[in-house]
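dude i think i finally got it to work??
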Amino acid sequence: MSTSVEQNLYQNKNIALQPVEETDHWTEVIRPKNSLLDLRLKELWRYRDLVIMFVRRDFVASYKQTVLGPIWFFIQPLLTTITFIIIFGRVAKISTDGVPMILFYLAGITIWNYFSECLSKTANVFRENAGIFGKVYFPRLTMPASIVLSSLIKFGVQFLLFLIVWSYYYFFQHKVAPNSYIFLVPYLVVLMGLMGLGLGMIISAMTTKYRDLALLLGFGVQLLMYATPVIYPLSTISEKYKWIILANPLSSIVETFRFAFTGAGTFNWQYLGYTTAFTFIILFIGTIVFNKVEKSFTDTV
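look at this
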């Protein structure tokens, strides 16, 4: 009896010590990240099908059990615009630089909503997807990337609404004067999305330890909107305080977007260059911070 057991142990030992044949190939190899700058962007590209799946999930799940469904994409900016017209246009009588009120406010709301959506959803990505992150491996950056893309679909729908209103005033009322800067609009949208992504990743990394930030996020986004010329033109700000508004990198995007379609407002290449530099710096920092926290966030979330 003991002799057979020893033979089996000897055979198992020999099997365990046999080297793996060189013909074996693994389809997936998971290695620890060696440094903060090891972002693995190629791996993100390999998982592009997963990004598309997340985009589809976010788009469908948002209004799947609602009565009006995607019509809310139109209702939300319209109701917000009507509210701004009543409060800031009729009651407060804030100037719109000669632009029709509905077009002035709708322009600011359309571009602002895209940034707000990217920032808010990305900032909560760890907390809302902790269950998925803790069970299966995939590049964590796929989730923030999918948020930016799914929010872009919503922006496209709301931008279509804006174009309908703008076309009416351009072709029938002749109250707007678009210019060549309209070709900068795709670039402005990219800046908005990347800035929301970068800031959102920084906040999401911080909320893994400091839950209070998640509660303050909505309030902070609302305050940031009032520090951006969404409901007022930059021309209404006195020169003494205008530099504070211009220090906000979102200001030049909103002003350029409105100036491109209506001809009213201000545009300056220097301010847009400042916004561009700020966007890519904050995106780089956000990616590094997100990359660092994702390794240990399951222990704190």
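The CA atoms of residues 145 and 246 lie 28 Å apart.
im so relieved honestly
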